[in-house]
Structures are given as C-alpha cells and as structure tokens.
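Posting this for the archive.
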Amino acid sequence: MEALRVEDLTKDFGGVRAVQNVSFRVGVGEKLAIIGPNGAGKTTLFNLLNGQLSATAGRIYLFGQEITTMATYRRAHLGQARSFQLNSLFLNLTILKNVLLALQGTQPSRFHMFRPVFSYAHLAAKARELLESIDLWQKRDVPAQDISYGEQRKLEIVLSLASKPRLLLLDEPTCGLTAGEGTDFMNTILNLGADITVILVAHDMDIVFGLASRIIVLHYGQIIADGSPEEIQVDPKVKEVYMGTEEGT
C-alpha cells in the first residue's frame, strides 16, 4: 500500500524553478531519506508535501487521497506530521506540559477552554507512555529550556507523534546534535511502529545510511538517483554531484 505518491511536482519562484517534475512513491512503513547539495530543493519539496507552499504543477496523494491543494491542518487530520529544523517547543513550560498540550490539540476537548488539561486522565497516561519511550519521563517537570538540545529534539519527535501520524516528515532532525545524541535520535526513529512511514531530509550521512531503507538524491530540483543506500553509494551521478569528477576520468 502507498503512503505517499508524488506526480510531476513542480514549484516556481518567479523565474526560478526550485522543484522540477519530481515523481516518486513511498510505501507504508518505508523510511526514505532525501539528500542533495545546498540549494537542491529539498526544503521546498518538504514544504510542498506539508502544504506550506502551493505547487505550480503536479499532484500529491496521501494514502490514496489527493492533497495537492489541501490545507496543512487537513493533511494532519489525514495522518501527516512534520518536525522542523528549528525547535518549536514552549521552552518555559515543563516537558510534560508540552506533551499534554500537543495531545489535547488532537482531541475534541481542545475547545473546552476552562477545564485544566491535567483533568484528562487518558491524556496524562498517553503523555507518560510517550515520554517513557524516549527516556524523558523522569524529567517531566523540568522546563523544556533546561534540557539538552538533543533531548529537545527528541521531545520534538514526541510532539509530532502526539497526533498519531501515519506519515512523519523530518527536516534536518539531527542538526546541532552531538554524535552520541544523533545515534540516540536514530534509535528513537528506528523504534517507531512498523506502520509509520518516515521521510527525512538530512545532511548527516551517518544518519541517512543508518536509518533509510531508500534514498532519493535531488540536484537543481530534479531527482538524479533513487535507490537503496548501497546503490546510491556507487551511483556515478551522485559521486559527481558530491565530489566532482575530473575531466577525462
């Protein structure tokens, strides 16, 4: 079954074509990495998938339903979630309150403005489950601003998971992390449910090759390679883009 299908997706900014006729499919549970040099169009593509930019041409389907012109919040209701390169936490609130607010935002009770969020026992239980899954339950009463950057990134993932997504978009998820924090983060993603599809944009090749079962390489807004990590490593076009090829070799 397909989680995502992209057909001839194109995005123009004036006279600049940032994404050109991009087409690919992603199966349910697949872990796909999108890589490429700076300016390749990776973030623009992500913004199109998430609905923050409108496409100039082409179509996007999420679990069989066309979402090309659909608002971001409606895509979220269909099971799409995204974490951003920059943290979007409530830094002055505790870890637990951040998660409870994210969970309440997915419930009909979000419209009940005068009832304390702690009064919802099922939300508290779910918050504990999520925080225990990333080893942050013991720090639940610590303000988000007082935990390490790596822990903040893991908390971002938990907030993304609060909506029970079926497709998770990760934009440079290990940016700013130490090697140990990056490994920690990778293990968190690998331990997600087998039915959760993950698409990530990343520059960290250790994370890409350790996490992805498939890699797409973008260059000047076009797909120049699509295959397994092993195939991408030996692809001559990819080598040329990343390392250059001397004339005559």
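Residues 83 and 170 are 5 Å apart (CA to CA). DSSP finds nine helices and ten strands in the chain.
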